[in-house]
């Protein structure tokens, strides 16, 4: 079912104590009134997922995601974590294909497609990130770029598996820059993404998929972004590190 979702990507931030404090604050602040029908997901550093899931044992309104996983289930891959490891901690989801993974760790959509498969095998929800670079936006290639990303990472899935995937559109030029996509730019790209999913699968799958916007989304601009019919929520970086800001963004979706 198409869900309204606010997800926080904490990236490489917080010590374990700071992470637990933030989770405690979120658990307190996110009342039923604020949540409405919105799903909240947090993606802390993988090192703390176990403690955080334990902290949230009695809290069923905050789901926990990894920020990345390896494309194999196990093996000699020093420093990596796998989908079965995340599943064994009872995590709910995992971000894959973040532009920082693409940019700094050379990840391609062919590789990301395998990560999505590993996650789906474990009943973990893949949060698939796509988005164009500034040069691609400037030269008018943004639709082609995102269309290709979607095709390469998702077209091999069955319609049933695709129904489990969350898509996050994160224009690279908007991530951590303070330069947010305008609501019109976000809506235009989200509608395009939905049309591509309809072409690759069918109209029902496209209608059901949640498409989140990410890139300098904050309490001030969230409501205008979320007001668009094809924007189903946000994937939040910097503003997810502050409980009040993150909760204000959740409020903006209701
Ligand atoms: P910022 O919200 O800090 O721009 O980061 C967005 C992001 O990369 C979320 O995955």
**Oligomer status:** single chain
CATH architecture: Alpha-Beta Barrel
Number of strands: 8
The name of the CATH topology is TIM Barrel
User: What's the CATH superfamily, by name?
Assistant: Aldolase class I
CATH class: Alpha Beta
Helix content: 40-55%
Assign an overall shape: globular
Q: Which strand-content bin applies to the residues? A: 5-15%
Q: Write the H/E string, N to C.
A: EHHEHEHEHHEHHHEHHEHEH
Architecture overview:
By secondary structure, the chain is an alpha/beta fold. It has one domain (4-242): Aldolase class I (TIM Barrel, Alpha-Beta Barrel), CATH 3.20.20.70. 44% of the residues lie in helices and 15% in strands. It has an eight-stranded parallel sheet with strand order 7-6-5-4-3-2-1-8. The mean pLDDT is 97. 1,3-dihydroxyacetonephosphate binds next to strand 8.
Which descriptors would you attach to this protein?
254 residues, alpha/beta, TIM Barrel, eight-stranded parallel beta sheet, binds 1,3-dihydroxyacetonephosphate
Present the secondary structure layout:
Elements: E1 4-9, H1 16-29, H2 32-35, E2 38-43, H3 49-55, E3 62-66, H4 83-88, E4 93-96, H5 99-105, H6 109-121, E5 125-130, H7 134-138, H8 142-154, H9 159-162, E6 166-169, H10 183-200, H11 203-208, E7 211-213, H12 222-226, E8 233-236, H13 243-253
Parallel strand pairs: 1-2, 1-8, 2-3, 3-4, 4-5, 5-6, 6-7
1,3-dihydroxyacetonephosphate binds at residues 9, 98, 170, 175-176, 214-217, 235-239.
